[in-house]
Every structure is written in structure tokens, then in C-alpha cells.
Amino acid sequence: MTLAGFKSIFFWEFVHRLLGRLIGLAFALPLLWFAVRRRIPPGYGWRLVALLALGGLQGAIGWWMVASGLSVRTDVSHVRLAVHLITALVLLSGLVWTALDLRALAESRLAAPASLRPLAVAALALLFGQIMFGAFTAGLDAGYAFSSWPLMGNTLFPAGVAFIEPIWRNAVDNPVVVQFIHRWFAFVAATALIMLALRSIRQGAGVAGRLLIWLVVLQIALGIATLLSGVQIVIAIAHQANAALTLIAATFAAHTIGRAKR
Questions:
Q1: Which of 1, 44, 188, 247 is the most buried (most CB within 10 A)?
Q2: pLDDT value at position 214?
Q3: In the prediction, which pLDDT does 62 show?
Q4: How large is the average pLDDT for residues 15-36?
């Protein structure tokens, strides 16, 4: 690594850590203020504290991830990278869900928190699974393995792949297998998310439901574009950012059906 390369990595790592601390303060200080003034609605105090604690845990996981690169290998563990990303997105989803509950409470003092319906659980679980494989793909540089679509080279699954033993490790550590799973599991997750969107549209959240459908379509298009571009960083970042937007929209849709009467 050149000195210029190290400076670039250091800059982004420094900004990332500083931003994490600022976000923590931006959440903790108002929470303390509202707690002292007894302005937190009943039943939400512990939930907000739990979200703050999850933010602190996310910082610890970040260090755990970085520590994996402070050895003979200088690249961080892709598994720890995935844990770091998933924890961040669980926190994001929890914040959105809580904000929607509080908005409903502001509109009616009798509003109860929304519940997670089975369809929402399935759709969100599949989305988190797909994002996890996206993190594996990024951490293993698996996107560089094949830059063609829909085939990997000339076949659906390339011949002559060197498999790892035990066989289950291929889904985690084999770049070719990880890319294959990330390519096609996307359509499983997309199907569940579109079903969730359609349910939310039927229950009154037309704008949010349609937005979720368009974000899912855009996410698949960005994933394909990332491959075909040879993993251009701008497209890859857009793909990751849109995953977060898709999660926000999915959380909104899940909350909508969770508030609807059975």
C-alpha cells in the first residue's frame, strides 16, 4: 500500500468514527433532556434506551471488525463486516419503526404500537439475508469474480469451481458461490418485498407501497449494473445506499400492515 492509499483509508475511517460518535451524542443528549423533563410517552423510555444501547454495541462491533485486520492479514473479516452492517440496519429499522409508532401516538393518544405480522417478518428477514450476502460479496471482493449477467461466464453456475470443505463454508467463504447466491437470492427477497408492498397498498399506504416496489426494481438494476461495470465504486455505493432506502420503505410497509385491523 502506498502512503497516498493509506491517507485515503485513514481519512474515511476517521470520518466514519467521528460521525458515529456525533450520531450517538445527537441521540443521547435529547433523550436525556426529554427523560429529565418527563416528556417520553409511557412504554417508550426503555425502547429508546435499547436503541441507544444498540448504537453503542454497533461501535463495539465496529472495533471488533477492525481488530480482525490488525494481524498478518490487513483486510477485515467479511463475516464481521456483515455483522457490523446488519447491526447498523437493524438499528435503522428500529428507529424508523419507533418514529412511526410515536407519530401514530401523536395523532391519537389511544394508538398502540404496531405489531409485526408474519408477512412482514418473512419479507424483512429475507431482505436482511440478502444484505448479509451483499456484505459477504463486498468483503470477499466476490463482485470481481464474474462481471457478466445473467450467466457467470458462459454458464448459470461456472464449472471447475474449487469448493471448500466443509461444504457449508462455501456459502460464506467461497467468492464464486457467494456471488451466485447474492445474484439469485435477490429475486426471492424481491418477491416477498413486493408482496409486502401490495399488502400495504391495499391497507392505505399507496405512496409507500409503490415506492417500495420501485426501490426493489432499482436495487436489482443497480446490482446488475455493479457487476457489468466491473464494480465501479460509485455504482456499488449507490447499490448499498439504495439497500438502506429499501429497508426504510419495507419497514414503513411492515408498520402499515402492523397497524391495520385484522
A1: 247
A2: 98
A3: 92
A4: 94
- Please tell me the distance from the alpha carbon of residue 204 to that of residue 78, in angstroms, as a whole number: 40
Residue 2 predicted with pLDDT over 90: no
The model's pLDDT over 154-210, given as tens digits with 9 standing for 90+, comes to: 899 988 888 999 999 999 999 999 999 999 999 999 999 999 999 999 988 788 899
Q: Spell out the domain ranges in the chain.
A: 1-113, 115-262
Tracing cell 435477490 back to the chain, one arrives at 186
Query: How far, CA to CA in Å, does 188 sit from each of 51, 126, 138, 168, 169?
Result: 30, 8, 20, 20, 22
Greater model confidence, 35 or 74: 35
